[in-house]
Design a protein that fits this description.
mainly alpha; two-stranded antiparallel ribbon
């Protein structure tokens, strides 16, 4: 497995966990904490601690996802220039990929509105 594949797997895993954590939360402040007797005031652990944990884990997963996405940019194969480096039989060879650039004659090939075809 190359580095980009590892980053891709980690990004998918963190994205799935982030979706799960966000879906567990209730937009009105109940969420998982209300499932464990959120109406009462006598709770072990407390509602506030569950909400804080979900809030902190959401921020942590979102930050981790952003960091993984930015780091995976450096692991993309073939990115970063027009040269490719290949290792063949233990020796590294570099090939240059030609880039098509417009020439001065390209303007002559463009048809003007009054020209006949």
């Amino acid at each position: 497995m190359n580095t980009f594949t590892i980053f891709l797997i980690l990004i998918i895993l963190v994205s799935f966990l982030l979706v799960v954590v966000v879906m567990v939360q209730n937009p009105k402040g109940g969420g998982l904490s209300s499932s464990f007797g959120g109406g009462g005031t006598q709770q072990l652990g407390g509602v506030k601690k569950t909400t804080d944990f979900l809030d902190k884990s959401t921020w942590a997963l979102a930050t981790l996802l952003l960091a993984l996405i930015l780091a995976s940019n450096f692991a993309i194969p073939g990115a970063g220039g027009s040269q490719e480096s290949k290792v063949i039989n233990g020796s590294e060879t570099t090939t240059t990929v030609p880039v098509n650039t417009p020439t001065d004659n390209a303007a002559d090939n463009i048809a003007n509105p009054g020209d006949s075809l």
